[in-house]
């Protein structure tokens, strides 16, 4: 397969580009933020996304979805990133769907129609510390009657305070650091002894600290097999990481695009500042980094579509998440410096890109996390 | 797709039967490369046989039309051939500036007679070419070149000096930029001519580099002769050919020396051998490990970009200036890799001559790599091109 978008994928990109730009440009995000929105996204927009098929993009046609793959998911997410659109698409339509696909027919039957209709939102309760490291999961799931009792604390649970479904990683066996013994659970909104405390993050998005104080779930809440949650968790994280890479690439590309425009428009010493070689070389270097990051993302998406649980695909996902982490960090830093004084103001958008990029860098593991795993897997 | 799978099966079988076992060993250095040409001595019977068999199928230039000796393969088939060759670690049968650079220019700008005369010997590895571009006073400002060619009706008489002419001392013919109109603006008085190096008016003197090797020459022309029939494209329009060809050169340099490709030790292997590991298998030096891990991510991402660029280029989807980006990134990355090899290799990597160090290969490769971001247009020139042609930033 050629490593560029097919004609169908280009058409999807064009329609997603127009749709997101019209429905949810940066002004949409500003409006939610300035109105002190407490939901974290616009439910009407989520319904629109569903109508476009975006929320069911990864579901098979038999399950009522579009039956497309990670490349197509990424095409839409990149537009979400470019416009800084607050959306549950990544956690719900991409990551949660990838886990539920692996997790048993009853989960698909229950949740896919609601997600496809834009009537449900899912959140991922994975992280327990400030740095993503799912193998270090300590939260416990004790057997209790016909089911399990969950106890522990999760953080950085995006949409956690409003989610209809939480996908929770907990330990039914083994100890922190081991991948065996982790079980994935589907926990519904309103479960007793579960509380979410929504925290406003630097980019104005909301992520929750969720406390589980002996939350009881039935045995059929298990996604996949008991003690064998690492499989569906990995599938979910691979989809989430590839998706986050695509969204982050959109943030980086969006920041670069507005910066290139600014370099052509802003004049000093009577000439556009983009005519100065000191800035031209930095802009050109940024262009090169973004092209390389884009290739890494597309490669990971294509491999995930070819062999969803293959080592090769997972390695490519590590590369994509690390590479977009660095590249988008570069793009937003250069962007603010190119904009100079106005880059520090809230009025200009470039600073908003910097904030969103920082949050996405941490989501599902930062560049160091992924570079380190890649090194481990390569035997050094 | 079914056709491609058939082609893959046939290609795999043919390669199994025809690629000699010695040609599936990693290339250890320049001496293992087959350059062909009138002065070339084959290193082994296997090297000769491999070239002949591949040339017979036109697979030394897989995508060139078969009427000029090429393989006549589609982009998809050429990719399959490449994949099947890497699968068995087959060495490239022929390294050739004729294939990489002159051929594409002739296919685009050459006359039918020029293609018929020059392309088949390139495919067969019979004529080795060199490139006469840079001059002492024309480096980054290549269009400022002064080598003069006077029109004598059916031929040109050429006087001047080229520099950094790769392997001029080993080449049979040269493709050369010369000034045919000294009064025209500098880009408009240049012509692209081909001539035989085996004549009294041509002298090539190798230049010794910091790596100890001498791949480049100073090349002097004193009343050298080029036939008019070997003027490529129109007189005084050689700059168009040169620009097109520089794209190919950049494409080639950008693909050099990165990751895998049967090039011996990987960077982590070099480091593990020199530094050792902890009980859990981690490299003992945590900072070196971090530097290598970060480099390896970039190298993997760049390999994906090289694949994407090749696919886009063949499909006509790439920005025409994209080779500049590839050249810039690939060469800078290769320099970084060599710095890390030296740092990881420690004092072992300092050795210059010993057998254990394979004749100082690490140190020599490290020094040689510094030229990557200079030859074929410096990194700074590439960044200028990207900002002008791709980002369309205003001229200074």
Automatic annotation (TrEMBL), chain A:
Cofactor(s), names only, from the UniProt record: FAD
Stored SUPFAM superfamilies: Acyl-CoA dehydrogenase C-terminal domain-like, Acyl-CoA dehydrogenase NM domain-like
Gene3D superfamilies: Acyl-CoA dehydrogenase/oxidase, N-terminal domain (1.10.540.10), Butyryl-CoA Dehydrogenase, subunit A, domain 2 (2.40.110.10), Butyryl-CoA Dehydrogenase, subunit A, domain 3 (1.20.140.10)
Domain Acyl-CoA oxidase/dehydrogenase middle residues, every copy: 132-198
Keywords associated with the record: FAD, Flavoprotein, Oxidoreductase
CDD domains for the chain: ACAD
Residue ranges of domain Acyl-CoA dehydrogenase/oxidase N-terminal in the record: 6-119
GO MF annotation, one: acyl-CoA dehydrogenase activity
Keyword Disulfide bond among UniProt keywords: no
Domain Acyl-CoA dehydrogenase/oxidase C-terminal, first and last residues per copy: 227-377
Family assignment from sequence similarity: Belongs to the acyl-CoA dehydrogenase family.
Protein name per UniProt: Acyl-CoA dehydrogenase
Taxonomy of the source species: Bacteria, Pseudomonadati, Pseudomonadota, Alphaproteobacteria, Sphingomonadales
UniProtKB/TrEMBL annotation, chain B:
Family annotation (InterPro entries): Acyl-CoA_Oxase/DH_mid-dom (IPR006091), Acyl-CoA_Oxase/DH_mid-dom_sf (IPR046373), AcylCo_DH-like_C (IPR036250), AcylCo_DH/oxidase_C (IPR009075), AcylCoA_DH/ox_N (IPR013786), AcylCoA_DH/ox_N_sf (IPR037069), AcylCoA_DH/oxidase_NM_dom_sf (IPR009100), Mycobact_Acyl-CoA_DH (IPR052161)
Record-linked SUPFAM superfamilies: Acyl-CoA dehydrogenase C-terminal domain-like, Acyl-CoA dehydrogenase NM domain-like
Residue stretches making up the Acyl-CoA oxidase/dehydrogenase middle domain: 130-223
Keyword tags: FAD, Flavoprotein, Oxidoreductase
Domain Acyl-CoA dehydrogenase/oxidase C-terminal: 236-391
Cofactor(s) demanded: FAD
Acyl-CoA dehydrogenase/oxidase N-terminal domain ranges (all copies): 3-126
Pfam families in alphabetical order: Acyl-CoA_dh_1, Acyl-CoA_dh_M, Acyl-CoA_dh_N
Record field: transmembrane: none
PANTHER family: ACYL-COA DEHYDROGENASE, ACYL-COA DEHYDROGENASE FADE29
Family: Belongs to the acyl-CoA dehydrogenase family.
Protein name: Acyl-CoA dehydrogenase family protein
Biological source species: Pacificimonas aurantium
């Amino acid at each position: 397969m050629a490593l560029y978008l097919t004609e169908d994928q280009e058409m999807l990109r064009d329609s997603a580009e127009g749709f997101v730009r019209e429905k949810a440009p940066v002004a949409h995000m500003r409006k939610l933020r300035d109105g002190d929105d407490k939901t974290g996204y616009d439910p009407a927009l989520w319904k629109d996304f569903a109508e476009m098929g975006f929320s069911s993009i990864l579901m098979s046609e038999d399950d009522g979805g579009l039956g497309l793959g990670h490349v197509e998911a990424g095409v839409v997410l990149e537009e979400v990133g470019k416009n800084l659109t607050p959306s549950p698409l990544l956690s719900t339509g991409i990551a949660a769907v990838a886990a539920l696909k692996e997790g048993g027919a009853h989960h698909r039957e229950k949740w896919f129609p609601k997600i496809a209709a834009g009537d449900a939102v899912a959140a991922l309760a994975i992280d327990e510390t400030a740095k993503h490291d799912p193998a270090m999961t300590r939260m416990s799931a004790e057997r209790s009657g016909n089911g399990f009792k969950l106890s522990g604390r999760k953080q950085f649970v995006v949409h956690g305070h409003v989610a209809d479904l939480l996908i929770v990683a907990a330990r039914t066996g083994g100890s922190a650091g081991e991948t065996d013994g982790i079980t994935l659970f589907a926990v519904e909104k309103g479960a007793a002894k579960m509380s979410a405390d929504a925290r406003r993050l630097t980019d104005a998005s909301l992520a929750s600290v969720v406390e589980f104080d002996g939350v009881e779930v039935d045995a059929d809440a298990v996604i996949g097999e008991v003690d064998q949650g690492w499989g569906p968790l990995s599938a979910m994280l691979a989809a989430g990481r590839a998706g986050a890479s695509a969204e982050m690439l959109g943030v980086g590309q969006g920041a670069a695009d507005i910066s290139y425009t600014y370099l052509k428009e802003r004049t000093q010493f009577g000439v556009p500042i983009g005519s100065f070689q000191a800035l031209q070389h930095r802009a050109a270097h940024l262009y090169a980094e973004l092209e390389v990051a884009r290739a890494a993302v597309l490669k990971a998406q294509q491999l995930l579509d070819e062999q969803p649980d293959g080592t090769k695909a997972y390695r490519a996902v590590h590369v994509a998440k690390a590479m977009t982490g660095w590249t988008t960090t570069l793009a937003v830093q250069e962007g603010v410096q190119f904009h100079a004084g106005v880059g520090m103001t809230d009025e200009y958008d470039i600073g908003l890109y910097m904030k969103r990029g920082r949050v996405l860098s941490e989501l599902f593991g930062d560049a160091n996390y992924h570079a380190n795993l890649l090194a481990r897997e390569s035997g050094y | 797709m079914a056709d491609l799978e058939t082609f893959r099966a046939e290609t795999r079988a043919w390669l199994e039967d025809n690629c000699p076992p010695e040609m599936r060993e990693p290339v250890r250095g320049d001496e293992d490369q087959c350059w062909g040409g009138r002065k070339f001595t084959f290193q082994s019977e296997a090297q000769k046989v491999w070239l002949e068999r591949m040339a017979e199928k036109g697979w030394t230039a897989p995508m060139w039309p078969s009427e000029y000796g090429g393989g006549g393969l589609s982009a998809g088939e050429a990719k399959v051939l490449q994949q099947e060759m890497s699968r068995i670690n087959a060495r490239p049968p022929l390294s050739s500036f004729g294939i990489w650079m002159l051929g594409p220019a002739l296919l685009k700008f050459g006359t039918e007679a020029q293609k018929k005369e020059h392309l088949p010997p390139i495919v067969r590895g019979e004529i080795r070419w060199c490139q006469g571009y840079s001059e002492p006073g024309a480096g980054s400002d290549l269009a400022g070149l002064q080598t003069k060619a006077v029109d004598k009706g059916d031929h040109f008489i050429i006087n001047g000096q080229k520099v950094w002419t790769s392997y001029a001392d080993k080449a049979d013919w040269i493709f050369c930029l010369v000034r045919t109109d000294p009064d025209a603006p500098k880009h408009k008085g240049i012509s692209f001519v081909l001539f035989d190096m085996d004549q009294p008016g041509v002298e090539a003197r190798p230049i010794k580099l910091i790596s100890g090797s001498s791949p480049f020459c100073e090349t002097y022309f004193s009343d050298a002769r080029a036939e008019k029939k070997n003027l490529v494209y129109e007189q005084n329009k050689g700059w168009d050919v040169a620009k097109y060809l520089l794209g190919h050169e950049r494409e080639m340099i950008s693909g050099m020396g990165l990751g895998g490709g049967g090039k011996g030790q990987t960077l982590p292997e070099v480091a593990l051998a020199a530094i050792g590991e902890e009980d859990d298998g981690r490299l003992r030096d945590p900072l070196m490990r971090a530097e290598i891990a970060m480099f390896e991510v970039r190298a993997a991402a760049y390999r994906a970009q090289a694949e994407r660029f090749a696919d886009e280029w063949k499909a006509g989807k790439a920005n025409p200036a994209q080779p500049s980006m590839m050249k810039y990134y690939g060469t800078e990355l290769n320099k970084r890799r060599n710095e890390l090899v030296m740092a990881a290799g420690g004092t072992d990597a300092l050795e210059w001559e010993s057998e254990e160090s394979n004749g100082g290969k690490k140190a020599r490769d490290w020094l040689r790599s510094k030229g990557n971001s200079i030859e074929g247009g410096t990194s700074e020139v590439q960044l200028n091109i990207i900002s002008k042609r791709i980002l369309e930033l205003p001229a200074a």
